[in-house]
Amino acid sequence: MTSILVAEKLSRNFGGIQAIDDLSFALIEGEIVALIGPNGAGKTTLVNLLTGVIRPSSGRIRFEGEDVTAQRPFEAARRGLARTFQIVQPFPRMTVLENVAAGALFGGAQPSVAAAMDIARELLEFMELAPFADRPASALTLAGRKRLELAKSMAMRPKVMMLDEVNAGLNSSEINGALRLIRQIAERGVTILIIEHLMKVVMSLAERVLVLHHGRLIAEGSAANMVRDKKVIEAYLGEKFARRFTVEAASG
Amino acid sequence: MQRWQQYAFFAVWLVLLASTPLWASNYIVRLAITIAMFTALTLSWNFIGGFAGYPSFSTAAFFGLGCYVGALSQRAGVPMVLAWAIATLFVGAFAAALGAIILRLRGHYFAIGSIGVVEVVRLLVSSWGSVTGGGDGLNLPLLSGGPNAVARIFLLAMILIMLAAFLTTVWVDRSRLGFGLRCIQQNEDAANMVGVNTTRYKIIAYTLSALFCGTVGASYASWTGYIDPTESFSILMSIKIPVMCLLGGPGTVLGAVIGTAAFTLLEEVFWVNFLDYNRAILGAVIVILIFFLPGGLLAISYRDIAGRVAKLSVWRKAPA
Amino acid sequence: MGQLQTLVNGIVLGGLYSCLAVGFSLVWGVLNVVNMLHGSLIVLGGYITYFAWHSYGIHPLLALPAVALLMYLLGYVMQLSMINRVVSQPVLTTMTLTFGLDLILYNFMTVYYSATPRRITLDLGALDLGGIAIPVDRLLGMLLALGLTGMLYLVMRRSRIGRAIVAVRMDSAAAALMGIKVDRIYAITFGIGALMAGATGVIFAMVYPVTTNLTGTYLGKAFVVCVIGGLGSVPGALVGGVVLGIIESFAGQAFGPQHALTVGFLLMLVLLVVRPTGLVGIKGYE
Q1: I need a surface site. Which of A137, B201, B297, C25 has the fewest CB within 10 A?
Q2: pLDDT band at C279, cuts 50/70/90?
């Protein structure tokens, strides 16, 4: 069980605000980890740090043993660190196929545009987006665009995928579809870090949970343990949910 | 349009321009040279402004530098074509170095920076009188042979440069560079996240946008035999080129060619007839273009128009 | 010339430059449109003033309010009818459109007025303050310029329209949700921009020759002031204007007056790369 992504004492401040404070954790290869916490806790900032969008004020990041603290976003992508955006970021005037091919061509280091398109077609089948292959990305519904984000990230042949609130704005059946896809992606060997607010997703998907509050890691452990953690309940979950979950868990 | 149709169109146009000495007046030959020249410049701009979507107004700087480096080389005894090559390389290197700095800016700031470059280069060239002749300009050795024979030589030169620019465009369009530039144009942040080395690609595009301008500048200087800072670094050129590209359709293979042709022909017609108002007419063309042809001439659905016309005639045939 | 004299010259010049740039800065900051017409509007204001003086004997100070109103209306109509269509479009489109409009205005002015420089000679002499000489017309110009800029600042801070403009500048979507008619604010802002340009033209007509050859120079200076001082704010234009004035004054002394503009541009380029926000304003990444 090797650590594929390690954060060592990461800190980042913006002017007077300490967005991330002395954060350390490790992602084990192949696991699904959820990152939860109230709004403003620093979850997206953490992902930005891990993918090179911003640089930490102090601390190190290691990916597969290599020090990648100073990497730029495109280098992270090529190494196999993919992420999706909370507000989807497609290439609006390109077709769905071209969007996914972009991921394959650059992050996925395919040797030619044609090869990238082939990989893209396969992935569109997997993501159930094949009927839309030749439509512009801007024509998709929100659920479709979220799946496109996933497909684009998969095309990069990632080793680690960071999903930033991929379920925001989706209805229940769309969420179930997304969950299914995420599990299938994990089965392909991708390590997943998922930022989520929906506890049902966290519970059903995550083997381990990291809880962030004011930029600090306040709890870390299995989903079941985390729900009972006093600090987490205080900061984020609320008493009602914790009680309800414990009752439901007890009744099986 | 299919790929082969685009290439065929260009080939026909090129032959048409190249053959003008055989069937047309000297005035038309000169017009052909101008068209070839501006097409090369517009195709160049298309790399940074069309494919990458960065509104550059630096064309005049590259052209002007090409003029001067070419002229100075020739005056130092370098043979003409070699002087053009030197100018090309110099301008390319200049653009690469400049691009590394200026391409960090986006939107309006990049646009202004690119204009500022033209102004600064022009002012520097004007001031460095001992080398560049300052405001008095520079003379170059003229080719022997009458103006018509000389014109044919430069027609050939400009057409070859235009061809080179076009072939480069075709190559970029089909390559991963072109794909990446399109990604940058549509969503630069997403392009970064997907693994595009946006800095490198932008610099390449900016350098490509400069290379052929250098060659055109140097050969233009050789043709006219005299250059000065005001003409060589004219902001008006920096504006006309993007407009020509917008007119045809930016980011496409043929857009620059069609746009330049349409614009130059329009300009000739109006310039000849309304000399005093030629700027106003250019302005009016720009305004009309922006309001009514947002995607350029290539984006108009000709099938759409043909369909509408067909419907009209159907109406007319309806029984009384 | 003593350093102090150069400094004072620079400050006086700076006041004029602030007025020159403030309208341009506002339009850019609020509408996100670079108004390539700005230089020509200044010269237009100058021409109207000159001919009012030359043909009817109207003193520029009297002409000022009339010209200001006229230019405001011109700007308002221009924005509503044309610029509004492209306000949300990419940079290339808006800059090219305003440049096209500028070409038309420039051409008509050149044909109608010809490019021969016109001078209004007021013969006001110069003040001597402890060894520092200040030409009265320039001083008057600077005071007027600062006065107008100050008035604009008060309007932006205190009036409802001013607050609405600031709101639209910060976030036009949010402003629309608050019930602000964004289109109307755009038109008003552009009108103000034209007004300030015209007023600057009136003031400049008292100090400098009026000629279409200067439209590009004025536009260039407006750019530089915006980059130095930051976009969309009156204080920014003030800071930027004064800094540019002082720099030009010293650069002119050190390198000769014809290089003063080059130094300004070089400074602008350096600032764009190093600190696009300017000394006062918003981030320069769009």
Answers
A1: B297
A2: low
